Amino acid sequence: QVQLVESGGGLVQAGGSLRLSCAASGSIFSLNAMGWYRQAPGKQRELVAAITRGGTTTYADSIKGRFTISRDNAKNTVDLQMNSLEPEDTAVYYCNAFSSTKIYWGQGTQVTVSS
């Protein structure tokens, strides 16, 4: 049992920045990787960024270097620093975590970028 709680979403102007945070609790010893996905209305949920316990990262091509994911294994938190936000980034952002047998999801946090 793992619980994920996101925070940091909100409304921001185009070109602005937000920092999303995800806190994991429960049986966190089993987690291999954590990351961020997003889902806009009518679209599939897509990967934004992910990071393994060992520090390997992956990013979606669409963010074009604007976002940075970081993880503190000791504190069991993952952050997503989002810079140069665009209206196309508007979506619900979900924290996720992987164990060897299960995938966990947070409740989501809304990010809205106004033009």
Descriptive notes:
The protein has 115 residues and is mostly beta strands. It is built from no helices and eleven strands. The strands form two sheets. Strands 2, 4, 5, 6, 9, 10 and 11 form a seven-stranded mixed beta sheet that branches. The model has no long low-confidence stretch (mean pLDDT 94).
Give a brief rundown of this model.
The protein is mainly beta and 115 residues long. It has no helices and eleven strands.
Show the helix and strand layout:
Layout: E1 2-7, E2 10-13, E3 18-26, E4 31-39, E5 46-52, E6 57-59, E7 67-72, E8 77-82, E9 91-99, E10 103-105, E11 109-114
Parallel strand pairs: 2-11
Antiparallel strand pairs: 1-3, 3-8, 4-5, 4-9, 5-6, 7-8, 9-10, 9-11
* Termini gap: 40 Å
Counting helices, strands and paired strands, the structural category is mainly beta
Largest sheet, strands/sense/barrel:
7 strands, mixed
Number of strands: 11
State the helicity in percent bands: under 10%
Q: Which tags fit this structure?
A:
115 residues; mainly beta; 7-stranded mixed β-sheet; 4-stranded antiparallel β-sheet
